[in-house]
Design brief:
With 265 residues, this protein is α/β, with parallel strands linked by helices. It has 10 helices and 13 strands. Helix 1 runs parallel beside helix 10.
Length: 265
């Protein structure tokens, strides 16, 4: 029976320590693919910022992508689902950030920019996450006026998030880092992404396995047939999973695939 495997990137497939996919994970995914299972990426990153999956891409191991926390899903060159944030909520959130000089990353279908960026954008995205794509400093009006916005990433803490959330009621908020949160249109989570992918491929929901470590992974870990949290995940993420594997740096992906997939086809 074909299984659909969904993988978060940062902290799940890719180590925060080495910024690479462990060799054991690459080989485990290759073995799963050889058995006829399908492999999907499920990330908060937009496609333009996915620069750390070459080890899988060069072996053609990836069957499709859930990006922007479910707001934009594609298979090859085919976009199978996309959903932009309502313009009123875009305006409300970006104005909140502008008034307080809070950095906010604005993501379109094929574009990305930062409004009023400070040193945190450089430190977190380029130094910590090793993003190589430039994120240009762009005035607010130019970033959003007349544009479809699929994801906003304001650098707000949890208190600020609680303050602004009641004013962006048509949005989902998914946090996986203490310094910022990702905002998409209501209903767009990694759970929605799974549903769009399996509908496209004709795979049953009970034949899905999801792997994650961050707060934005909780919806898909609860929704998948089997939700697997990494050993490096926070406690609330582990609580949402059926199984907790070892950390990304301790062969967590390979260990979980061996336990739940290999030999159980």
């Amino acid at each position: 029976m074909t299984k659909a495997l969904f993988f978060d990137i940062d902290g799940t497939l890719v180590s925060f320590r080495t910024h690479e996919i462990p060799a054991s994970a690459v080989e485990a995914l290759a073995a799963a693919k050889a058995r006829g299972h399908r492999i999907f990426i499920s990330t908060g990153r937009p496609q333009i910022l996915i620069n750390n999956l070459v080890a899988l891409q060069e072996r053609n191991l990836i069957d499709g992508y859930i990006t922007m926390n479910g707001a934009y899903c594609f298979v090859g060159d085919e976009v199978i689902y996309k959903s932009a944030i309502p313009s009123d909520d875009v305006r409300t959130l970006t104005t909140y950030c502008a008034d307080r000089k809070i950095p906010c990353i604005v993501v379109g279908e094929h574009t990305i920019c930062a409004c009023q960026p400070d040193e945190r954008v450089q430190q977190i995205f380029h130094e910590y996450l090793k993003v190589t794509t430039p994120i240009p400093d762009t005035p607010l009006e130019k970033a959003i006026d007349g544009k479809e916005v699929f994801q906003l990433t304001p650098f707000i803490d949890e208190t600020e998030e609680q303050e602004v959330a009641p004013h962006i009621t048509h949005c989902e908020i998914g946090r996986w880092h203490p310094a910022f949160t990702d905002v998409t249109a209501k209903g767009n989570t990694k759970q929605r992404g799974i549903d769009e992918i399996i509908r496209h491929f004709g795979i049953r929901q009970e034949d899905t396995i999801a792997f994650g470590d961050g707060g934005n992974d909780i919806p898909m870990l609860r929704h998948a047939g089997i939700g697997i949290a990494m050993g490096n995940a926070r406690d609330e993420v582990k609580a949402a999973a059926k199984y907790v594997t070892t950390s990304v740096d301790e062969d967590g992906i390979a260990n979980a695939i061996k336990k739940w997939l290999m030999g159980n086809d």
